[in-house]
Amino acid sequence: MSSSHGVTRTLLVDTCNTLLQPTRFKDYGPNGLQVEGKAQVKHLVSGVTASRALIEAAIEVKADAIFVHHGLFWRGQDGSVTGWMKQRLALLLAHDINLLAYHLPLDAHPELGNNAQLGQRLGLVAQGTFGDQDLGLWGERADGQAFASVDDLTHTLTQVLQRSPLVVSGVNRPIRRIAWCTGGAQGFFEAAIAAGADAFITGEISEPQAHLARETGVSFLACGHHATERYGAPAVAAHVAAQLGLTHQFIDIDNPA
Question: Is residue 45 assigned to a domain?
Answer without folding.
Answer: yes
